Amino acid sequence: MECSVVLPLQGAGVVGTRPRGGGPVQAFWRADRRRRRLASAVAPARCSKMYVPGFGEGSPERKAATNLQHFFNYVAVRVVLSQLESYNREAYYELKEFVSRTSLNDAEIFCKKLIRESPRLKGLAMRILEVRSAYVKSDFEWDNLKKLSFKMVDDANTKLMRDYVLEVSHIED
Amino acid sequence: MECSVVLPLQGAGVVGTRPRGGGPVQAFWRADRRRRRLASAVAPARCSKMYVPGFGEGSPERKAATNLQHFFNYVAVRVVLSQLESYNREAYYELKEFVSRTSLNDAEIFCKKLIRESPRLKGLAMRILEVRSAYVKSDFEWDNLKKLSFKMVDDANTKLMRDYVLEVSHIED
Known about the structure:
2 copies of one chain form a homodimer. By secondary structure, chain A is an all-alpha fold.
């Protein structure tokens, strides 16, 4: 989460200067007001985001993206397997056997092992890399993900509260 | 992933009928061509998305959104804990103690238990529900997530291939 708090532009010699000596005080205050008005016009609204601790140098978005990478790799493996199933049974069984004994939890470790397994699996690994890139960029419906997430959080909140109210008020469902 | 393949509109009595008896063959073919042209004008472009098996009645987007819900709940707990830390130490320690003995892997089970734990924790649970909803809808940077995912998949693919080439060609890094 990058939070862009932009401070009002302050000219080195403009803000913070006070009229030296016998300058008219009235004029100073007027100029100061004008400067403040100018600054508030230049400065964007203050960042009103919640502070999320615990992500060190990363961000919640980076953490979520990292987790999605593993998921996209899993999807790519499923896509390639289903493609192979219909026209190359031998390769299909070889990849299926590899998947059955290798964890898909870490996408990079999985692909690293797959590339080094056999010449045929190296070719399939290249295809998985291609498929996951194409899937992320063209097929995955990002807008749908956002829409579903909005709906899910509302539904889950309503359900939790309704269940609790039903429980404590002893109303039969 | 919802794939909207719309079949050409076929009037019950139009497509599939053949001229019975001695109708002019030439006229039949011309009418058939016209029908086909009409159908291709009505039907949208074919769905060119990859077939992703294994999600049953759901979709990869729904699966990803479900996983993100648990993550957003985790973020909301962190946010509330960090807010409490500065102004209500008692509630902070109570929530922290609860978090230490309850898994955050399943957001709904966590919240369900939290609501029923004690009156104070019930209040905090309500706040967590509110925070996670606000976070999903306002604070979380969805565009950033997409951008990061695009970059990550490219970077990971390049790294995997480069590492492999370096390894097999025995080039010193």
